[in-house]
């Protein structure tokens, strides 16, 4: 499927779902204002983009599809969302492992543009990074299953998850999943909401600190070789250089988009051949900061804070075990985006799941609030 056909397909599907949901819901159940504000600012910065028409199309698609996914999550309970994520990710892992054995030419990265990923399994996914991102979330849910009840089938399931993480070469996803799984183990043993809140605020600040450290590393004060972080060091340095040219509004939304798949705006800052046409910055936070400036990244961080806040507000009142699990998955997605890019980007797994969780928490809390009001003391 061509890029134009793919874009049209996803936009139409997202629009149909969004319109069907709007006919059944109230406007107050849409994403909060900060979500819409982010896209308004992205549209403003898009005017300075090197590829405004491409960026504009991606912006509309991301907004419409995100709207549909949020409203879809609104209809799900935390338990249903966890089950859906686990069932779908497990099926994809099994299909991907099968494809790797039966159709290795198609399911395993072959020599080409990216030498660093040759031999890594992508299975039924477009890229091994997509495969690893999904598998990392599956691993966290498998951890929950093992903790709740040990059985042979559950050991096999977590074994499949570990196996595919290994063959896909998803080191970043594996590291983020391990940290988030450890956080989940701690969470299920913590009953004090204040302790839980403090733990995750600490985790959020740790992630932000890491982003700042990446910025310092990328500023040129250190010697960055083309191979640092499998090419990321050079891309980060290029993004930082673009950010320094216009710190307020950045280089424009769609900084790394190209009309014809050719050179991106940051190609002039790069020297290694394989990284000369990067399609994303391998750091969602740094990429958004370089493309939309200080204003954009501030709005993004407020949005992220809002997603965590929506989960923390529900942690002790609605299916607490599943809320803690979704909290851990949300932390995993944020940690994974420090070394990959998947925020505010159309059909990226991270972006979809963040919106599903956000919508699920909003809907669950609304239903709980309505139920509480209907059982007030003195009601007949």
Structural features, described:
With 380 residues, the protein is mainly alpha-helical. Helices cover 67% and strands 0% of the residues. It contains 13 helices and no strands.
What does the average pLDDT come to?
A: 78
Q: Give the low-confidence spans.
A: 218-224
Helix content: 55-70%
Radius of gyration over C-alpha positions, nearest whole angstrom: 21 Å
Largest sheet: none
SSE-based structural type: mainly alpha
Percent in strands: under 5%
Rounded to the nearest angstrom, the distance between the terminal CA atoms is 59 Å
Count of alpha/pi helices? 13
Number of β-strand runs: 0
Write the layout of secondary structure elements.
Layout: H1 3-22, H2 33-46, H3 52-74, H4 78-102, H5 104-107, H6 128-148, H7 152-167, H8 171-187, H9 193-221, H10 232-245, H11 284-312, H12 320-336, H13 349-374
Helix pairs in contact: 1-3, 2-3, 2-11, 3-13, 4-6, 4-7, 6-7, 6-8, 6-12, 8-12, 9-10, 9-11, 10-11, 11-13, 12-13
What is this structure, in a nutshell?
This protein has 380 residues and is mainly alpha-helical. It contains 13 helices and no strands.
Task: List the main descriptive attributes of the protein structure presented here.
0% strand; 13 helices; 380 residues; 67% helix; globular; mainly alpha
